[in-house]
Amino acid sequence: MSASFVPSRWVPGDRLATRRAAPSVAAGAPTIGVLALQGDVLEHLRALERCGARAVTVRRADQLAAVDGLVLPGGESTTIGKLLDRFGLRLPIRARIDAGLPVFGTCAGMILLSDELDQAVGQPLIGGLAVRTRRNAFGRQRDSFDTRLEVAGIAGGPIDVAFIRAPRVERVLRDDVEVLAAIDGHPVVVRQGALLATAFHPEVTGDDRLHAAFVASVRSAHDRGQRTIA
User: Fold this and answer.
1) What percent of the chain has pLDDT over 90?
2) What is the DSSP letter of 75?
3) Which of 15, 67, 86, 164 is most buried when burial is the number of CB atoms within 10 A of its CB?
């Protein structure tokens, strides 16, 4: 699904400020971690809680081992990549991805999940998502923009999103990668198995539908695992 830029209909910060408090977490809710080394950690924690998940921060391997799903937040991808190695998390996260862990990467998180980067200088990546991504594909900080975007599989019309020094997918490397949304022909939302990635920040607008879809997928995977164990 492709789109061009659409003027924003929301005021940045307004919907976050007026959102109601997170509901109490129900018994049996999936535990979803947010990688908390750098970036939009708090915003993701709040969105996940509003969607019924038990949201926790992940900074250590033992915390990673305890989650049913993981969010890789927006931030500075080079910094996060270096910190992943410093904290001994990059390879354990990749191992859990290979074992089927649902992961949602936003902005820098999309970059970190990508198997390849379209740039001359390398940086630490987790990988697992068969795409080639380009950093700052829409321009620098001053070129950031807010828009509404149709995403395949998300009901209720266009979602509110914020592109902040955003990347985009330059090439899909495998046939099982689904393009759920694109701008001017360039994929900005992709899914491959249990991996979901967006080029933008859905966590800052107060529109929780992508988080709700991810929580539902984590809950489904968690329930399947519980039935298998039983």
Assistant:
1) 70
2) S
3) 67
